[in-house]
Amino acid sequence: MNIFQDSQTYYDPFSMTRNSSEKSPKLFEPQEAFMLGNLFKDLYMTYNGFSNYCLQPHNARQQSLLEVQVYSFVAHEINLYLDTHANNQRMVQLFNEYSRKAKEASEAFEKQYGPLMVQDSNTEIPFQWVQGPWPWEYQK
Amino acid sequence: MWAYSKKLQYPVSIKNKDLRMAKFIITQFGGSNGELGASLRYLTQRYTMPDDKGKALLTDIGTEEYAP
Q: What is the pTM of this model?
């Protein structure tokens, strides 16, 4: 999408809808989408000489969490897309696929490193949920 | 209405103290055109949305803007 195009003289947040009402949008691969912060190729614009940081997990915990983050991000991007394009069958399929992957990755993470959601805490004593680290705390 | 999880949407690892950068970042979140203000606008405007698209979109986007 080129926002400097002559034909586009007004701001149109739903242009993606009308240009491709039946077609599905082109997508980045999950890893790349996560790095760029954008799943949709047509909505991504590079910024002046800026290159994105390539994420490198330093340990098994970070690796496991990164997997959860990547799939959750992709599922969430598709969720936002589907809010305005609820009838796109391919995107609904992709949403199901990535939600499932995110769920599997979460379960794998939680099995080893503790709950991500409070309802996934087990009923042990002491209650696992209150144990750190919390996301804003520095972790090696 | 909300559920949260114990992870960030994007991994953060701060290696050095940088107060000038911290000021930019807190302004991005809490400043006059920041995400915090945007989130409250989205989450308030959604109550007057006449259609399902609008309700869903404003709730999802408002949540995303709000969550640090």
A: 0.84
